[in-house]
Amino acid sequence: MPKNLFIKILTVFTIVCMVLFVLQPLGITLFASQQGTDGLDISFDENDVSRLQKAEDFKTEADGFLVLANENYMNASIKESEGDTKGAEKLGKEAIKNELKAVKLYEESNSIKKAIYQTAIKKFWRDYN
């Protein structure tokens, strides 16, 4: 490829890139995939935000119960290795209780999120169509 032709191609490419980068912040798009997305908005009201925060609090509490369950399992293993089978059994049962509490909290958190997101999706499609 001649040197002159390469410089011309590089110059045209540079100009095209500069035009695209200048037009993009102005909201002007040249590609169909980017057009028509300005009106799409999924927003949550204050009630939804507070419910999502409550769901997050449930999840955080459930995470804490799982940490406790893991600690109980580790301590049960230590007790069992020391020969204290009754202590290990007691800690194992406590770990299972903590896991069950975590499962219930995760279910509650997920059901809250599911309800909010389903409503938002339905609203989006209703407004979109």
Describe the fold and architecture.
By secondary structure, this protein is an all-alpha fold. The chain has a domain at 54-129. The chain has helices at 3-23, 46-81, 85-128. The chain has three helices and no strands.
Mean pLDDT: 82
Residue runs with pLDDT of under 50 for 5 or more positions = none
Distance between the termini: 53 Å
Element order: H for helix, E for strand: HHH
Summarize the SSE layout with pairings.
Layout: H1 3-23, H2 46-81, H3 85-128
Task: Give the key terms.
129 residues, mainly alpha, 78% helix, 0% strand
Could you give a quick summary of the protein structure above?
The protein has helices at 3-23, 46-81, 85-128. It is mainly alpha-helical and 129 residues long.
